[in-house]
Specification:
Layout lengths: L25 E6 L8 E7 L3 H9 L7 E7 L6 E5 L2 E5 L1 H4 L2 E6 L4
Antiparallel strand pairs: 1-6, 2-3, 2-6, 3-4, 4-5
Length: about 110
């Protein structure tokens, strides 16, 4: 019997291919506000204000979350993002503080 607090030993079960796994590779890290509609990727870093960061994290938008830019308003502000099962609209200024990794073939 293992003492409390000691980690299990043995083979790890994670193969790196979970629900957030994509076949492509991510290499370019850019600001979310600089992307065009139709671009996909995943969140790399949330460097936005504390209140916005808390709201996004409460909705499940954390590092590694896949996203797609659905549409952009005619004047360029706001942009609509699709995360998991819901859509979020963000101002370009707010989206500029979020760093994302995009696929090699995009951008």
């Amino acid at each position: 019997m293992r003492p409390y607090g000691k980690p299990k030993r043995g083979r790890r079960r994670s193969s790196g291919r979970g629900p957030n796994h994509h076949a492509g590779t991510y290499s370019k890290t850019v600001r979310l506000g600089d992307l065009d509609p139709g671009c996909t990727g995943r969140i790399a870093c949330l460097s936005c204000q504390k209140n916005l960061k808390r709201r996004l994290m409460n909705m499940g938008v954390v590092c590694g979350t896949p996203f797609e830019i659905s549409r952009v308003a005619p004047l360029g502000d706001p942009i609509e993002l699709k995360f998991k099962d819901f859509n979020i609209s963000l101002r370009r200024e707010e989206a500029g503080d979020i760093w994302v990794e995009v696929m090699d073939d995009e951008r």
